[in-house]
Amino acid sequence: MNCEDAGALLNLTCKPVTDGLVFLQSPLSLAFDGSGLGAYVQELGNERYRISDNANTLFAAQTFGMASNAKRADQLQQIARSCKVELSDHGELFTVCKAEELPWFLARFMDAMTRIGQACLPRSGQAI
Amino acid sequence: MPKIKEVTYDEAQLVISEFKAWAAGTQINWAQKSDRYFPKSYSSKNPLMIDGLLPEGLVLELYFKPSILTGVQDTFSASLLFQGVRILGLDAGQPAHHLNLVGENEEMYLREVNPPHLHRCVPDAMTGYAEPLPDASIEDLWEDFLLHANIMDAPELNLPDSGQTRPLL
């Protein structure tokens, strides 16, 4: 194994969306339906970036029948905060960071999406 | 998420192959979901008839989410549900691919499928397998989905706006 090349094994692909906005696609997927995990990264200027899921994670869970209630909201908020990510009033996972913090926050963002995907599984643990 | 009843592959195939008639009126009625900390999305639950009867547990659910981010596609999802299982589904507008970890004998097994795509059940799994669809407008994809699902007499797709929605009960 060549360690110099091995760093790129967990392939992350980048799709341009609009000026200053890209979508980063990871090889990871949501537990309940196999949707790929990815994040929008938007340049805010002054070497700051905003990472967002455009509320797609919880929308996908809604389409699979997830109930949206206060108890679930508390649980999801706790998961997001434990990963240093915010959950907006509109169900958007997001965070803002400096350029040099981007790798760390991007990893935490994927953590948050993965853990929220697990939390949205039905009780049986089977993907639906 | 709700606990679901067991549906076999053969049952699902039979339900999909039956001709089904739209039984929800002349237009799609959307209900807005606006719970705090959840996406501001719209959904529509539509019963379907087979041979003039409304089979228990058979429903077509539609979901629509306007994009929060400027310049990003809106998201649309259609699900033919039988006993709570998504036996056929359409996903459009999502940015991410779908990874097929089920469907061992299917062409797209272990492959990534870009949106739009059609979810269908396979012998080893009721959900989790998807196949690519040609890139098209949501309206055209809706028409294609109706053909795949054998649903007749459905209205044209009227995507929601503030004048067409009612609060979710």
Plain-language structure description:
The complex is a heterodimer of chains A (128) and B (169). Chain A is α+β, with helices and mostly antiparallel strands and 128 residues long. Chain A is built from four helices and six strands; from the N terminus they run αββββααββα. In chain A, 34% of the residues lie in helices and 30% in strands. Chain A has a six-stranded antiparallel sheet with strand order 1-2-3-4-6-5. In chain A, a hairpin with a 2-residue loop joins β1 and β2 (21-29). The radius of gyration of chain A is 15 Å and the shape is globular. The termini of chain A are far apart. Chain B has 169 residues and is mainly β. Helices cover 12% and strands 33% of the residues of chain B. Chain B has helices spanning 9-17, 138-149; strands at 20-22, 30-33, 41-49, 58-65, 75-82, 85-92, 98-99, 112-113, 117-120, 130-132, 151-152, 165-167. In chain B, strands 1, 2, 3, 4, 5, 6, 9, 10, 11 and 12 form a ten-stranded mixed sheet that branches. A two-stranded antiparallel sheet of chain B has the order 7-8. The longest helix of chain B is centred in the C-terminal third of the chain and has 12 residues, at 138-149. The chains are: A alpha+beta (128), B mainly beta (169). At the A-B interface, β1, β2, β3, α2 and α3 of A face β4, β5, β6 and β7 of B.
